[in-house]
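ARCHIVE RECORD
Type: protein–small molecule complex
Small molecule: glycine
Source of inputs: curated submission
Record status: active
Notes field left blank by submitter.
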Amino acid sequence: MEEKQWIEDVAEKIRHKMILVACRNRHNIPYSTLNGRFDDCSGEKITWWTNGFWGGMMWQMYQATGNELYHEIAVENEKMLDANLMMAGGLNHDNGFKWLPTSVANYRKTGNEESCNRGMLAADNLAGRFNLAGAFIRAWNDAGDGKKAGWVIIDSMMNLPLLYWASETTHDPRYRQIAERHADKVQEYFIRPDGSACHIVEFDPETGAFMKSHGGQGYGEGSAWTRGQAWAVYGFVLSYLHTNRKSYLETAKHTADYFIENIPESGLIPVDFRQPGTCTWEDSSAAAIAACGFLQLAQVLKDKEALKYHREAVRLLKILDKKRCNWKEEEDNLLEKCTAKYHSDRHEFAIIYGDYYFIEAIWKLTGQELFIW
Ligand code: GLY
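STRUCTURE (tokenized, with ligand):
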């Protein structure tokens, strides 16, 4: 099928299914499904790191269709997150994942000042996680014992745009300076010579010295967790977009090329590129995020290079559409077979960020994307 026709067909399938899903989930913040229906992480689970993606999906649908229902649900998701903004222990480097697709999206789309205020509070907190000795942004919290004070994770690259946005909005360079120092650290310590990325690096929080790397959500130390690899691709191209620093673009291409070289013949993405050959666990969310990164790369590059990344993104997305999308009207999720982490008793299930990035990628192709990052 012609690429243009396929894009229009898949966009129509998304529009058709999402209005039904939105009507069924007006007051929830979904993470995964149970018997095909979304669960709810509002209320007691409000600090869960994925709680901005549902709002983000609603903004993307609103941008593409103008249907006010999506707007209303997005605003409700954003307001529910206020309980998290008031909880210091529930704020961490994931502030970007929570408040970029909700409050910042709202501010960008409507100019709402209250949303801008929420985004700034989240950005201030993220900037406050910067470790001066090591020049990195601390990832997670711990029990107050400092055990994770020096932990940095590759996912953080996707949260830096909250800081770039804060600098662009306030004309105060401090946020961007912190983001760039952190990106430099990640570039130096996470990206291996072959272009693969590790998930977690632990530094001494007092001196900033490198201590060790951890396998994290991937197979193990030295492995190549596919979603982390996708965060690296998309995160570095976004850092390039916001700073114009060529080395970030080079790192984005380097990590993208590693991803592309390791895509199995089936086009279905494993949880880790270095998991044992006998393991068949997949992570469709890694494919959707990588596709977004490749398409963003294609937008900033020219000619042959741009074509290469565009082609690879479309290849991944067509395979997701054909083999890993759930187009059943009565079920809520779009993507099947997402995996949060390799060492877990749960693999290959629906996860909300898989759906979010699938829609974002398709909207990048239709030209209907609301820029979130
Ligand atoms: N913590 C982000 C992820 O699981 O990808």
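CURATOR ANNOTATION: The pocket of glycine is lined by residues 49, 155, 217, 227, 340 (CB under 6 Å).
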